[in-house]
Each structure stands twice: as C-alpha cells, then as structure tokens.
Design brief:
The chain has about 425 residues and is an all-alpha fold. The chain has a single domain (about 1-415), classed as Amino acid/polyamine transporter I, CATH 1.20.1740. The chain has 17 helices and no strands. The longest helix is centred in the last third of the chain and has 35 residues, at about 280-315. The chain is globular. The mean pLDDT is about 85.
C-alpha cells in the first residue's frame, strides 16, 4: 500500500510547485508588509473557495483517464474554443510574470553582466531545453526536491521571526482596512493567484495522466486526492507563512516593496536574513531561486502540454508523434517570444506586471470554475467519482462569490 502511494505521489507536488511562486513570494508577502495580518482571512477564504475547482482536475483524470480538455470537448467544441481563447489571453502575461520574478532573484543574488532581458532569454531557453529533451520523471523529481527546500527554509524563517518580533505590537498597530479603489485592486490581484490561477487544474489533469503513463500504475481516487491534498494544504500553509513574514518584518517599518524585480528580490531576501541571520543568505537564495525556477519551468512545460491537446480536440483526431514534437517547439517559441516582449516593456515594473497577470486570472476564474464542475459531473464520469452533493453546493457558493467579485472589479475598472 505504501509503495503504491509513492507511485501516486507527484502530480500534486508539481501542482504545488506551479502554485508556490508569485502568489506566495510576491503577493502574500506584500499583503503582510502592507496590511499586517488583516488579510489572513482573505487568503484562507480564497484557498477554501477555490479548492474544489483545482481538485476536479485530478478527480476527472483518474475517473475517465482523460484530461479536462477532453471533458470540455464533450460539452461542445465551442467550450474548447472558449478555453483556447482564455488560455491565449493569459498565457503570455502569466509566463512573463513568473519569469520576471525569477530573473529579479537571479540578478539580485548573482552578479551577472547581462541586462534583465538578456537573462530572461537565457533562462527561458534553459527551461525550454529541459522541457523538450527531459521527461516527466525529471520534472517530477526536481520539483519534489525544490518544494522541500523552500518549505523548510520558509518555516525556519517564520519561527525565527516569531521569536524575534513583537507580535502584539504588529497586531495593535493595524489600522482598519480601507476599501479604497487601490486596496480593492490589490485584493483582486491577491486572490487571482491564491493559491494559483484555476487554469492549472487542466495542467493537473495532464500531469496525472503523464504520471500514470510514466509509472504504469493507475492510483485509486483516494490515493490521487491524497497526493493533491498534500500539495494543496502545503501551498496554503506557505501562503500564510509568507504573509506572516511580511507582517512581522516589514509592516510599519517605513519600508515598502519596490516595483523593479531586482530591488524587490533584495527586499524579499532581507525578510529571511533579518529573521534567521546573514549566515543563512546563501541557503535561502538558492531555495528562493530554485522555487521560482521550478515555477517558470512548470509553466513553460504546461502551456505546450495543454495547447497541443486543444488542437487535437478541435481537429477531432490526434496529431502524429513527429508533428506533435514540432508543434511543441512552435508553442514554446511563441510563448517565449511573447513573454520576452512583455518583460522588455515591464522590466522595471515587475509588481505591475504581476498585478495584471493575477487580475486577468481572477476575472477568468468563474468561467473555468463552472466548466470544471460541469466536466466532473458529466454522464461519462462514473457516479462514484463525481463530487458529492455537499461538494457541488460548495462549488456553486465559490462560483457565485468569485463571479460577484469579478463583476465588481470590472465595474471599478470601467467606472
């Protein structure tokens, strides 16, 4: 039984690696630095309300041995076209946002005589080589190691910060949250990727199928959901840890996060070293870079992995293996080109780029949430694999809340 669990473990951890990144290192930390502990409830609520829609990716793949893209196709070709449009509308910004943070960390830690854009190109080319010539097993093992390193480093820093900081002073100095346009815009950006964009539920279904193909072992629904839940709970704990670090180290310090990637990265690393000590800098720098590198890598791996099945679904027949590889080359080239162009424009405005990406994901979240619920409740899914009555009701509550805030955000932007 234990051996079978280790065979099933992987897709949930890769999902966590894709989620732990900008939403945690950037957005959660900013929430704590700017508002203290006031937004803890928002972070917890976002993780709870979005949980079903992420879980449905793994659930659907195990139940049907199909990806969620196949589930969308069963609803009609127009649904696949809609998902394609949503993907094309967000993928360049998402790839640019995670890459920008990674480059900022690299240039902050390593003295490289190259420009921001030049480092971006080299980083994305390295990721492309790993994606194109590596295997799922390589990605699987690399990501597990990186997530463990970051988790240990973050929890260590958090414990040290609690021991050194005046927690009561932080809480007592918090002013009531002001529902200004700027603060609401940040809330939307925070929730947009908390714990991540709902898009990655589709990635999760594909990673689950890849794991089955790699190991030759199909886990039970219970094993698959345990794997996913480990990753999901871990990302939730880490998001709260980063928020707490921001609150205890930067809140009311007179210091605010810079817009530029390198400056932001310097401030982020200072959060750790102030809590643990300067001796920890090399270890923490490696952990932070490795974390964001894994996020950049998983995003670059995911979009070609998603876009090719979309094309196959729209054509109504599979793409031949040789043509599929060429198609993957093309998707990666397009994705890298778009990301580099965006970063060249927003090189000194990393926070703005991140806010744009996360806000776009927030607006599209209700649509993807509805699609995932309908897919996993469809007649082709065996009854025992469908969500319970409670989960269905809970899902609709999440959809209504996400949709209401999305409409309100669009109203604010147009007003």
């Amino acid at each position: 039984m234990k051996q079978n669990f280790w065979k099933a473990l992987g897709p949930g951890i890769i999902w966590a690696a894709a989620a732990i990144g900008v939403s945690h290192l950037v957005q959660s930390t900013r929430a704590g630095a700017d508002f203290g502990f006031q937004l803890i409830g928002v972070v917890i609520l976002a993780n709870i309300l979005k949980y079903p829609f992420f879980q449905y990716g793994s659930r659907y793949a195990i139940a049907t041995e199909e990806s969620l893209i196949d589930g969308y196709r069963r609803m009609g070709k127009w649904v696949v076209v809609l998902f394609l449009l949503l993907t094309l509308g967000t993928m360049f910004t998402i790839q640019a946002a995670v890459t920008s943070v990674t480059v900022g960390l690299i240039k902050s830690v390593v003295d490289i005589p190259l420009s921001y854009v030049q480092v971006t190109i080299l980083l994305l080319l390295l990721c492309a080589v790993i994606v194109l010539f590596g295997h799922f097993k390589t990605l699987d093992r690399l990501i597990k190691l990186v997530v463990v390193i970051l988790s240990v480093a973050t929890i260590t820093a958090l414990v040290a910060a609690f021991l050194r900081s005046d927690l009561q002073a932080v809480v007592s100095n918090q002013l009531p949250f002001e529902f200004s346009t700027g603060n609401i815009a940040f809330l939307i950006a925070l929730v947009g990727w908390m714990p991540s964009a709902i898009d990655i539920s589709v990635w999760s279904s594909l990673w689950t199928l890849a794991k089955i193909k790699e190991t030759g072992y199909k886990p039970s629904l219970k094993q698959s959901l345990l794997d996913f839940n480990i990753g999901y709970i871990g990302t939730t704990i880490l998001s709260l840890a980063f928020l707490s670090l921001g609150a205890m180290v930067m809140f009311q310090s007179g210091e605010s996060f810079a817009n530029g990637g390198v400056q932001f990265a310097n401030q982020l690393m200072a959060l750790y070293t102030r809590s643990i000590g300067e001796w920890s800098y090399p270890i923490l720098a490696v952990a932070a870079i490795a974390t964001m590198f894994s996020t950049t890598l998983t995003v670059l791996d995911a979009y070609p992995r998603v876009l090719t099945p979309i094309i196959e679904s729209l054509r109504g027949k599979p793409v031949e293996q040789g043509a599929k590889r060429k198609l993957n080359y093309l998707w990666i080239l397009i994705l890298i080109t778009g990301a580099v162009m965006l970063i060249s424009v927003f090189a000194d405005q990393m926070k703005l780029l991140v806010d744009i990406a996360t806000s776009l994901s927030f607006v599209t979240a209700p649509v993807l949430a509805i699609l995932n619920l309908k897919a996993v409740s469809a007649p082709n899914v065996p009854v025992e694999y469908r969500p319970s009555r409670f989960m269905q009701i809970f899902s609709w509550i999440g959809i209504v809340v996400l949709a209401a805030f999305a409409v309100y955000f669009v109203y604010l932007e147009l007003a």
